[in-house]
Amino acid sequence: MKLQRTAAIVLRQYYLLRSSPARVLPLFAWVAIDMVLWGFITKYLNSVSSSGFNFVPTLLGAVLLWDFFIRVMQGVTMAFLEDVWSRNFLNVFATPLRISEYVSGLVLSSIGTSSIGMVVMLVLATAVFGLSFLAYGALLVPSLLVLFLFGIALGITASAVMLRLGPASEWFIWPIPAVLSPFAGVFYPLSTLPKWMQYLSHLLPPAYVFESMRRIILGGSASIGPIALGGALALVDILLACWFFVYIYRHAVRTGLIARYSAESLS
């Protein structure tokens, strides 16, 4: 794998963002709206709660972490879709570019775009609504890493699905985070779910993150064990996602399905 080819994929995404404010605005606009909406919801809940419980770290913190995961996933899928929408996909793979180099470029592009959203969320949550990340302790950094790894895995998998089913299948991809959120226990303990949902939840790395963060906020002891297990699952998911993308790509080339991404078929 040559880093120059991977860097070329990242550079293309940079030029796309630099030349189009319409592409830059979604990087922080939606997360800002989420932070403002949920920030005022938590302030209202604090004002009407008689128990003195602080909803900011539980609800607003959960929204921040989940939005970060979504931005990471969409950073990969959007970079892939840019090549599809611009009818550039076949041009890219007409070069000596390898699958590993292309996927690595998508991942690095996602790091850049999700970092922008993360900075905006941190500024709004801390400066406007007083969210203190000291409440999460030292486990915050590995928790973000687990969410990042799973977001990358899901983004690669979603790109492979679109490669297999065609450009129109992108509408199957956007609801994925919403479908997963009930199983991940973003806003409530997993014990709230029925047993069959809990079994599925234990296969999702974010479930371990949110359970651990919630335990710390409620005064429980911090434990690296669940986070480590979530990280191991996320690494397995990344390996499976990369294998799935390569398998789908080879299948598309072998069967001729990749021709649907030519300029002629999209015109």
Quick structural overview:
By secondary structure, the protein is an all-alpha fold. Helices cover 75% and strands 0% of the residues.
Protein topology:
Blueprint: H1 3-19, H2 21-48, H3 56-85, H4 89-93, H5 99-128, H6 140-165, H7 176-184, H8 195-201, H9 205-217, H10 224-255, H11 263-266
Helix pairs in contact: 1-2, 1-5, 2-3, 2-5, 3-5, 3-6, 6-9, 6-10, 9-10
Task: Describe, in plain words, how this protein is organized in 3D.
The chain is mainly α and 267 residues long. It has one domain (3-266). Helix content is 75%, strand content 0%. The protein contains eleven helices and no strands. The chain has helices spanning 3-19, 21-48, 56-85, 89-93, 99-128, 140-165, 176-184, 195-201, 205-217, 224-255, 263-266. Helix 3 (56-85) packs antiparallel against helix 5. It is globular. It starts with a helix and ends with a helix.
- In N-to-C order, the SSE pattern is HHHHHHHHHHH
Estimate nothing, just give the exact number of structural domains: 1
Helix content: over 70%
- Give the rounded overall mean pLDDT: 85
The total count of helices amounts to 11
Query: Can you summarize the main beta sheet?
Result: none
pLDDT < 50 stretches: none
* Rg for CA atoms: 20 Å
- What is the 3D shape? globular
What class do helices, strands and sheet pairing give? mainly alpha
DSSP strand content? under 5%
Q: Termini distance? A: 33 Å
Q: How many distinct beta strands?
A: 0
Which terms would index this structure?
267 residues; 75% helix; mainly alpha; globular
